[in-house]
């Protein structure tokens, strides 16, 4: 699978962005107005290349690629003439088709390959191997069902969710998704990229800078409360496990496949 | 009685106003020992182990905190007079922090615990109205039980 997120835009309207190569399709018909949108393609042929095509009112855009497999940043210049390569910025991740769990969970959401692709992506976006523990960042996503065909997809939590001290549920985004009439939220997931242990507090969170800080293992009371408040299953992904918290508070732990990242 | 979030918020603010503004108020005016919904769960899962587990050993040594016997359960303090005394000591520490006004502005929950030869005061800020947090951060400030001397603190993130 290939996931493409438009992370930043700084351009005028009517930019059409598409991909070709191991995957083919339109990322956005109006990329300048699609900051935060996600497109997934695949499955993709292994070992090939992806080409990007940006058509703007000024002509065909150019791009630069940074990063190494499996995650890349692609920066576009929209041919306006300033050569700034900041008109559209993409985060591109090539996800292997491996199963995220060491065995099937018998949970129709968790065993779904598209949902698993999303879980792999939010895990990667969390920067889970960053040696500076508090540079890692919890990330979240909605699990969304198409009301017409019942298929599942996922939507990254919008940028109102992350703040200095951690992660909140973007409630307005859930309302918007449910009000679309074509889909409904059927679950949520987020990451725990910090490894349990006791650390020096970097003072990243204004009101909690007096103490050392202990990172706890597993879902917190807040995670359990979110499942019950929203009436949705809540999946929590850490380095070794995926936890499922049901709205009634029941919790189950699944083991991650150590060979699938 | 089930309180709405805003109702709970008001209760917390009222309880803290009583503590901060009038530490000598009569016990029936508010609960001096805390207002956590489930104080036992945090004590069992997060707080008590800090006093004997291996991962907190360096922190205990650094702060001169005794290592207790593994499994020492601790208790949720319910005696109002004791809690008033502990919270008075805690407030002396909290008021010295530059960010304490911000914590007060946000509103917070608190709870008094006894763990071995220490009193421990939990506080955690309340989320703004309509916000559902996924990151839960709490704080535990520790005082000697005999002299109520402040010995250190630990934050917890889950």
Attribute tags:
heterodimer, A: 261 residues, mainly beta, five-stranded antiparallel beta sheet, 38% strand, B: 158 residues, alpha+beta, 5 helices, 35% helix
Write the layout of secondary structure elements.
The complex is a heterodimer of chains A (261) and B (158).
Chain A: E1 2-9, E2 16-21, E3 25-28, E4 38-41, E5 50-56, E6 59-60, E7 62-68, E8 71-77, E9 88-94, H1 113-125, E10 140-146, E11 152-156, E12 162-163, E13 166-169, H2 171-179, E14 183-191, E15 197-199, E16 212-215, H3 221-230, E17 234-237, E18 241-245, E19 251-255
Parallel strand pairs in A: 14-17
Antiparallel strand pairs in A: 1-4, 1-9, 2-3, 2-5, 5-6, 7-8, 8-9, 10-11, 10-14, 12-13, 15-16, 17-18, 18-19
Chain B: H1 5-21, H2 39-47, H3 57-63, E1 75-76, H4 80-94, H5 100-106, E2 108-115, E3 118-125, E4 132-133, E5 137-144, E6 150-157
Antiparallel strand pairs in B: 1-2, 2-3, 3-5, 5-6
How would you describe the overall organization of this protein?
The complex is a heterodimer of chains A (261) and B (158). Chain A has helices at 113-125, 171-179, 221-230, and strands at 2-9, 16-21, 25-28, 38-41, 50-56, 59-60, 62-68, 71-77, 88-94, 140-146, 152-156, 162-163, 166-169, 183-191, 197-199, 212-215, 234-237, 241-245, 251-255. Chain A is mainly beta and 261 residues long. Helices cover 12% and strands 38% of the residues of chain A. Chain B has five helices and six strands. Chain B has a five-stranded antiparallel sheet with strand order 1-2-3-5-6, sandwiched between helices. In chain B, a hairpin with a 2-residue loop joins strand 2 and strand 3 (118-125). Chains A and B meet through strand 13, strand 16 and helix 3 of A and helix 2, helix 5, strand 4, strand 5 and strand 6 of B.
């Amino acid at each position: 699978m290939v996931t493409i997120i438009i992370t930043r835009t700084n351009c005028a309207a009517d930019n059409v962005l598409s991909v070709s190569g191991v995957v083919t399709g339109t990322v956005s018909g109006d990329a300048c107005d699609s900051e935060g949108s996600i497109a997934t393609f695949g499955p993709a042929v292994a070992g090939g290349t992806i080409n990007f095509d940006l058509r703007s009112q000024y002509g065909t855009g150019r791009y630069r690629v940074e990063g190494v497999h499996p995650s890349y940043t692609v920066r576009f210049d929209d041919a306006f003439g300033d050569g700034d390569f900041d008109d559209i910025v993409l985060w591109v991740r090539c996800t292997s088709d491996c199963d995220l769990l060491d065995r099937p969970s018998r949970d129709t959401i968790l065993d779904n390959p598209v949902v698993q692709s999303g879980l792999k992506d939010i895990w990667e976006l969390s920067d889970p191997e960053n040696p500076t523990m508090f540079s890692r960042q919890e990330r979240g996503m909605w699990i969304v069902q198409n009301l017409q065909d019942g298929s599942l997809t996922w939507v990254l939590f919008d940028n109102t969710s992350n703040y200095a001290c951690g992660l909140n549920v973007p409630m307005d985004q859930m309302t918007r998704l449910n009000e679309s009439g074509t889909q409904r939220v059927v679950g949520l997931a987020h990451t725990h990229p910090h490894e349990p242990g006791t650390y020096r507090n970097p003072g990243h969170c204004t009101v909690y800078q007096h103490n050392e800080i202990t990172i706890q293992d597993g879902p917190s009371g807040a995670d359990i409360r979110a499942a019950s408040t929203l009436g949705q299953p809540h999946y929590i992904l850490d380095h070794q496990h995926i936890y499922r918290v049901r709205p009634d508070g029941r919790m189950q732990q699944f083991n991650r496949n150590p060979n699938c990242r | 009685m089930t309180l709405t979030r805003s109702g709970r918020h008001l209760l917390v603010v009222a309880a803290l106003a009583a503590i901060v503004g009038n530490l000598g108020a009569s016990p029936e005016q508010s609960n001096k020992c805390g207002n956590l919904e489930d104080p036992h769960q945090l004590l069992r899962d997060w707080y008590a182990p800090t006093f004997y587990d291996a991962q907190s050993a360096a922190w205990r040594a650094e702060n001169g905190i005794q290592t207790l016997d593994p499994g020492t359960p601790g208790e949720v303090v319910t005696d109002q007079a004791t809690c008033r005394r502990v919270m008075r000591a805690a407030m002396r520490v909290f008021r010295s922090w530059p960010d304490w006004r911000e914590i007060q502005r946000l509103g917070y929950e608190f709870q008094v615990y006894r763990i071995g030869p220490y009193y421990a005061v939990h506080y955690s800020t309340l989320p703004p109205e309509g916000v559902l947090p996924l990151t839960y951060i709490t704080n535990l400030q520790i005082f000697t039980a005999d002299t109520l001397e402040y010995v250190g603190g630990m934050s917890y993130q889950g």
